[in-house]
Design brief:
The chain is of the alpha+beta class and about 725 residues long. The chain has four domains: about 10-170, Glutaredoxin, CATH 3.40.30.10; about 220-345 and about 445-635, Alpha/alpha barrel (Glycosyltransferase), CATH 1.50.10.10; about 350-435, no CATH class; about 640-715, 3-Layer(aba) Sandwich (Glutaredoxin), CATH 3.40.30. β20 (about 640-645), α24 and β21 form a beta-alpha-beta unit. The longest helix is centred in the first third of the chain and has 21 residues, at about 150-170.
Length: about 725
């Protein structure tokens, strides 16, 4: 019997009609395996994972394969978006056993949940050196039947090695490995050192920046060859390092990467939003799934680059990405869904591809409707002669980077290598093509609402909205925060996710607590609502209690849950950044921000402990520690605190606009009445001459107040490099 019909997960519901007798993760499934004396088959994936769909079609929907699974195994299906704790444990095991990881993740477990064989995607028939899934099932069944004691003994040895690695912090600097559907960290974690002051100072930050510059792709931007992932967190570090040191090579590297991604096929040139990664080094051909984590991080870094450089490209991409999130990734509950599928109607990228003939036909339909002006040419269509239309189509194709002489699948991906001659007309053509595209089969939505991902989206929308003057983005962030508070706060604790208005089964992780707290802190700075600051500080208090041990060891998950929750062979902890900031990096970010806003020494010290603990990782493998480095840069700059205090009005608003436009990344900004209750940064900061004034501070020690926007602009431009600033107290 398939037991997934009542699941709180889009991914599990995709498998509810499989002939496989799926169980959800829990103690009951392991008790069933013990009762039947068969091993457990654990399959982990997520709703927008292309290769998960392929394996499902090949194997889990196949009645013959299902018979073999049902006869010889208890099969458990897990959504990594719903149970990141389970995914992290067995991804770590798979990487330790095979040297690689990815999704779908396939593990075989004994009755105690200990793995003895693992892999990722297995094809229906042998190919490329991989055994077929049927061969794997047969071999595992035979090994279990022939000598179950030896299999469980081997599983015990694997589990012991994993526990030893975790206790020793092994692999903390190994860096993330890359799999078909995204990166997965190889490290087990790290042990923080209580009482040690920051280990990432000016020297370490300079070294990390130099190493990144040596590794960057000088032609296309980004790092490595193929596949190539958007390095949002690393670029944020480079921008912050540039702001502190004024090393233009760092800004050039960031600009190169952001511009090439914005003009490539990895970016949806019609509707905005980024795909998960590019299958080539040129950012040309995407792997088409769109993830909330990626787009939130990219929105934030493009908005930062836009205000730092006045780049029209970055400003456009920030706006389009924010609007994409609001238009296509909002949940009916008010939060944000996790992803859009790579596939439509079972075909990867079907929604987004434009065969040349189809595109030319669509342009022929769209162009006459574009207010009489040909997009990209500035030419009046007038009588709409065939020559005019052919010229207009050729111009639009050129702007989209489509070569009619290259009718291969890569040529079906719209890019934007050049800017249109007529931007207004081109925008009308984009809208017309998007309308045509909307009639095609659309990618599925993973409707699960994840606390960590919503925290990232809230922070991005609040920060970008405040910096770029888009109040609608801040309102959307506010609504998402309300939804998360309503859906994921259960009986005094936090859940990792919600689905269709109900909380999910998994408890919130370190990354959930930290990212959501950071989102609330960004929202507090954008709105001045003290309730957001209170909620964030409560989250951080819970975070320290649940995930930090007295000896300074941090874990990604809380302690053992209820007996019905299933086995937990290790408590995962991995400091390396992957598709999103690691829990440890996110914790350092939220703690440092909260300390800068409130002056709480406990949070300041905890943030510095974390930063000290990952110095080796950050210096040796900076691509795996982008968010750690970005947090360390904020710390190296102070972090800068800007209090704009005094009566409300246009003068205070203008001071706030200057601060939000010019403050370095990682700064904190509080705007409100002097001595407003519950807002420590505004305490003892009076206005001047009956009007608001701006205070530029570090560690709550401030320069003379800036009375005018010009004074504040000078103060921020003259902001020097200050390292080893005393704590907020």
């Amino acid at each position: 019997m398939n037991r997934l019909a009542g699941a709180k997960s889009s991914y599990l519901l995709q498998h509810k009609d499989n002939p496989v007798d799926w169980w959800e993760w829990g103690a009951a499934a392991f008790e069933e395996a013990r009762h039947r004396n068969v091993p457990v088959l654990l399959s982990v994936g997520y709703a927008s994972c292309h290769w998960c769909h392929v394996m499902a079609h090949d194997s889990f929907e196949d009645p013959d394969t299902a018979v073999v699974i049902n006869r010889g195994f208890v099969a458990i299906k897990v959504d990594r978006e719903e149970r990141p704790d389970v995914d992290a444990t067995y991804m770590t095991a798979a990487q330790a056993m095979t040297g690689q990881g990815g999704w779908p993740l396939t593990c075989f477990l004994d009755h105690e949940g200990r793995p003895f064989y693992a892999g990722t995607y297995f094809p229906r028939t042998p190919r490329g050196g991989m055994p077929s899934f049927a061969q794997v099932l047969a071999a595992v069944s035979e090994a279990w039947r022939r000598d179950p004691a030896e299999v469980t003994s081997a599983a015990g040895r694997v589990a012991a090695q994993l526990r030893d690695a975790a206790s020793q912090g092994a692999g903390a600097a190994a860096g993330p490995g890359t799999a078909d559907d995204g990166p997965a960290g190889t490290g087990m974690g790290t042990r923080t050192r209580v009482g040690v002051r920051p280990g990432i100072g000016a020297t370490e930050l300079d070294h990390a920046a130099r190493l990144l510059l040596a590794q960057i792709d000088r032609r296309n931007g980004g790092f490595g060859t193929a596949p190539k992932f958007p390095p949002a967190m690393v670029i944020e570090f480079l921008l912050r390092h540039y702001e502190r040191t004024r090393d233009t090579a760092l800004l050039d590297a960031a600009t190169l990467t952001l511009d090439h991604m914005a003009r490539g096929g990895i970016y949806d040139q019609l509707a905005g939003g980024f795909a998960r990664y590019s299958v080539d080094a040129d950012w040309h051909t995407p792997h088409f799934e769109k993830m909330l984590d990626d787009n939130a991080l990219l929105l934030r870094v493009y908005a930062h680059h836009a205000r730092l450089t006045s780049s029209a490209v970055s400003a456009r991409v920030a706006e389009e990405t924010a609007e994409f999130l609001l238009r296509e990734m909002r949940s009916p509950t008010g939060g944000f869904i996790t992803s859009l599928d790579a596939d439509s109607a079972g075909v990867e990228g079907l929604t987004y591809r434009w065969p040349v003939d189809e595109l030319a036909s669509a342009l022929r339909t769209a162009l006459p409707a574009v207010t009489g002006t040909v997009a990209g040419t500035g030419t009046d269509t007038g009588t709409d002669t065939g020559t005019d239309m052919d010229t207009a189509i050729a111009s639009a194709l050129k702007t989209f980077g489509v070569d009619p002489a290259r009718p291969d699948p890569e040529g079906e991906i719209l890019r934007r290598p050049t800017d249109p001659e007529d931007p207004i007309g081109f925008e009308a053509v984009r809208a017309a093509l998007r309308t045509i595209r909307d009639t095609r089969p659309q990618p599925g939505r993973d409707e699960i609402v994840v606390l960590r991902s919503n925290g990232l989206a809230i922070a991005a929308l609040a920060e970008a909205g405040a910096a770029l003057g888009r109040t609608g983005w801040i309102d959307a962030a506010d609504a998402a925060a309300d939804a998360a508070l309503r859906l994921c706060r259960v009986d005094g604790g936090w859940r990792h996710s919600a689905f269709e208005g109900a909380p999910g089964a998994g408890r919130a992780t370190l990354a959930d607590h930290a990212c959501f707290a950071a989102g609330l802190l960004a929202l507090y700075q954008a709105t001045g609502a003290p309730a957001r600051l209170v909620a964030a500080t409560e989250l951080l208090t819970d975070m320290l209690r649940l995930f930090r041990e007295p000896d300074g060891t941090w874990f990604d998950t809380a302690g053992t849950g209820a007996a019905s929750d299933g086995p937990a062979i290790i408590r995962p902890r991995d400091p390396t950044d992957g598709a999103a900031p690691s829990g440890l990096a996110a914790a350092a970010d939220a703690l440092l921000t909260a300390a800068a806003l409130t002056g709480t020494d406990t949070w300041w010290d905890a943030a510095e402990e974390i930063t000290a603990s990952v110095a080796g990782l950050a210096v040796q493998y900076p691509r795996s520690a982008g968010w750690h480095l970005a947090v360390a840069e904020a710390r190296a700059a102070g972090p800068l605190q800007i209090a704009i205090a005094g009566p409300a009005g246009s003068h205070r608003d203008e001071l706030a606009r200057v601060a939000r436009r010019l403050a370095p990344g990682g700064s904190v900004i509080d705007v409100g009445e002097s001595d407003a209750p519950g807002r420590p940064l505004l305490a003892d900061r009076p206005g001047v001459g009956g009007r608001a004034a701006a205070y530029v501070c570090r560690g709550f020690m401030c320069d003379v107040p800036s009375r005018t926007p010009a004074d504040l602009e000078r103060a921020l431009h003259e902001n020097g490099v200050i390292l080893d600033t005393p704590g907020p107290g």
